[in-house]
Amino acid sequence: MTVKKSNTDAGGASLKMSRRKFMGTAASVAAAGSITGFPNIVQAADPLRTIGLGVSIINEIQGKAAKDLGFKVRGQALGYGALFGKTLNQNDQYDVSECYFDMFDVMIPSGVFQAIDTHRIKDWDKVSDLTKTGMLTPGSTVGQGDAPVRQIWVDKDGKRTNGPSRYISGLPGWHNADSLGYNPDDTGRSIDSWAELFSSDFKGRVALLNVPQIGAMDAAMGMEALGLIKFGDKGNMTKMEIDKLIEFLIVKKKEGHFRAFWETFGQSVNLMVSGEVALQSMWSPAVTAVNAEGVPCVYASPKEGMRGWHGAIAISKKATGKRLDQAYEYLNWWISGWAGAFVARQGYYMSTVENTKKHLPAEEWDFWYEGKPAAKELPDPFGSPLINKGQVRDGGSYEQRFKKIAVWNSVMTENDYLVKRWTEFLTA
Predict the structure, then answer these.
(1) What is the pLDDT of residues 377-395, one digit of tens each?
(2) Phi/psi at 364 (nearest 5 deg)?
(3) pLDDT of 15 over the 60 cut
(4) Is the dihedral of CA 88, 168, 368, 343 positive or negative?
(5) Which of 9, 160, 244, 306 is 20 to 30 A from 317, alpha carbon to alpha carbon?
(6) pLDDT tens for each residue of 75-93
């Protein structure tokens, strides 16, 4: 369904262009009445064009935005590879990309985005420190990989800066911390470490996310938790580290450890509901969906920390005139609160926490953000019952989840090599 590192920054354009070339090729293969504070602007002949994943490109969201802003919004939901490819190679085909900070090591040097002027962002002061400083609260860990703070700051020309600036690469949006999901009836115990991903107790009943950049990090955290290796940066592994990881995974695969390698939300849910797996890489909303089917599923809180990801709303360099004005209106709308409340009911968080809180009833806020038991039955974004009274969200409060992020989703310097070796693992 969804940020570089000192060695990358020091590597210069050659490293980044290498990743751009690879990901551009890979993605091309995969792709086949206004509210207060948002004044109407002159409607363009064509609607504002936005692209993204199914997390944010939802009819209800675009429809509400269009109603509030007074101009049409046309959203196109894509898979991750297709989104990456279109964002990188076709920035004349969209005005706004609802993408992810882990893409920005490729997008920033490519020049496909224009710098966003924070002086035009109405609630910039309300955007969380999670992206501005890397720490949600004092004492939080920034985490390895493509932490948003490593990707957000640019100058007016869209080039990286060494620290805070008036300009940003993308407006921080929806985000979450991912972990392991498990059926406690099947595991027979609580899961509190990534090491359990490779426990022989669950041989033949384990599933991994089949997205190399993410699945590899989940596996790396499990391997490291076992004490088998200490990675320099799990979000930017060396070729030697990738080799050691893949060789370990191939051995586990040949032993029959893995039941499946899933790619979609639905596949992950079905694997758990059917009882085929006891433990797997999982997304938080998928855990909720499994529980909604009457099957017990718990979202682990590993002592090593969770894996984070962060959405960003970027503006195409091709957007000018009325389209550029509309793009800024759309960005401002996204962080004003209503959309934040909508994605909260999916299990995601929003960068403008204060605004989101204003649009959530107290009992929903307490459950989704504070980690408190549901005071009553709570709905999903579409109004259907989702959370039972007394249910508690796994992982604790928003602060508890994000005070210790082990690693952020990333596009590694050796991304092409990682994908090659991951394919070898799947076919072994």
Answers:
(1) 999 999 999 999 999 988 8
(2) -75, -40
(3) no
(4) negative
(5) 9
(6) 999 988 899 999 999 999 9
Q: Could you give the CA distance from residue 352 to residue 357 in angstroms, rounded to a whole number? A: 9
- Every domain of the chain and the residues it spans: 6-175+309-362, 177-306+406-427
Q: Quick check: 34 and 40 in contact, CB under 8 A? A: yes
Instruction: Give how far Cα 340 sits from Cα of 149, 175, 326, Å.
Output: 20, 10, 20
The closest of 342, 356, 312 to 131, measured between CA atoms, is: 312
CATH class of 177-306+406-427: alpha beta
How far is it, in rounded angstroms, from Cα 160 to Cα 168?
9
**Six token digits for residue 281:** 């890489």
pLDDT at position 271: 98
Report whether pLDDT(48) > 70: yes
Residue type, 271: L
Q: Are 422 and 216 in contact, with CB atoms under 8 Å apart?
A: yes
Smallest CA-to-CA distance from 65 within 313, 330, 314 is with 330
Note if the pTM is more than 0.85: yes
Question: What pLDDT was estimated at residue 425?
Answer: 98
The model's confidence at residue 45, banded by pLDDT at 50, 70 and 90, is: low
What's the CATH code, domain 6-175+309-362?
3.40.190.10
Token code pair at residue 319: 């957007």
Tell me if domain 6-175+309-362 and domain 177-306+406-427 are identical in fold.
Answer: yes
Give the pLDDT score at 219.
Answer: 98
At residue 121's C-alpha, the angle toward residues 119 and 123, to 5°, is 115
pLDDT tens digit string along 276-318?
999 999 988 899 889 889 999 999 999 999 999 999 999 999 9
